[in-house]
Design brief:
With 239 residues, the chain is mainly beta. Helix content is 14%, strand content 42%.
Length: 239
């Protein structure tokens, strides 16, 4: 990582809570609502619903969906493997290939998609230290002063290997561009990180809006809009 990219990443890490992130045992996010044409096309709320709370461990890449897919039950995403209830965890990404990308989602499908998305969002910007830098420099995107394009390792469960993150002057992430490959190579999103609240020194976005995108141009068409309640952070003694 060259000097400019390293300085940008370290400034962003400091703004997002510094090394305190490594002591997070769980971020508990109450789920308030989901809308947009993508969830509707994939079956929400007909073929899958929402959990009451998502308990995210971004360090261990694990998320537990409480009261999912039904009250009193739970789903678990663990480093790419998913399970509902007491079922054996399974690798699931390969099922999103060919015609599988066009199917209506089951509870397990939605668990994989939202599980990898939320664990990865909450690993940023720390996970950028392990990514390959492709481009860095100033940007004119709304609310941002710098942009960083990276390639994540293939072992990372996320939307796509290549992503662009946009930062405000102080290092706060304000936008995140990617391709949701489990849906389509054409599913290009401009993901806005909104309504931050600070919990134990760590800012957490409680409103995530994904707009459709052509190139770097975000269009006024909402693919997905997710809203969360006030988060709680549980810290462990690990370093």
């Amino acid at each position: 990582m060259d000097g400019e990219a390293l300085r940008l990443v370290e400034r962003a890490i400091a703004r997002h809570g510094g090394e305190r992130w490594s002591r997070i045992e769980a971020i508990e996010l109450p789920v308030l609502g989901l809308s947009g044409f993508l969830p509707w096309l994939k079956g929400y709320p007909r073929s899958f619903g929402l959990p009451r709370i998502v308990r995210i461990d971004p360090v261990r890449v694990r998320a537990v969906f409480l009261d999912y897919p039904r009250p009193g039950e739970r789903g678990v995403f663990d480093r790419g493997r998913v399970a509902l209830g007491e079922a054996e965890p399974v690798e699931h990404r390969a099922s999103f290939s060919g015609a599988g990308k066009r199917r209506r989602w089951s509870g397990l499908d939605a668990l994989y998609f939202f599980g990898y998305a939320l664990t990865h969002y909450h690993s940023l910007p720390w996970s950028l230290r392990d990514a390959e830098v492709l481009a860095v420099g100033p940007t004119r995107q709304s609310g941002a002063t710098q942009a960083l394009t990276v390639r994540f390792p293939r072992t990372v469960h996320t939307h796509s290997e290549v992503q662009t993150i946009y930062f405000a002057e102080d290092g706060l992430i304000v936008r995140h561009d990617y391709v949701a490959e489990v849906i389509s190579r054409l599913a290009r999103g401009a993901h806005l990180w909104l309504d931050y609240v600070e919990v134990k020194g760590i800012p957490i976005a409680t409103h995530r809006r994904v707009l459709t995108r052509i190139g770097r141009q975000a269009l006024p068409l909402v693919a997905l809009d997710a809203r969360f309640g006030t988060p709680e952070i549980i810290e462990s003694g690990r370093n």
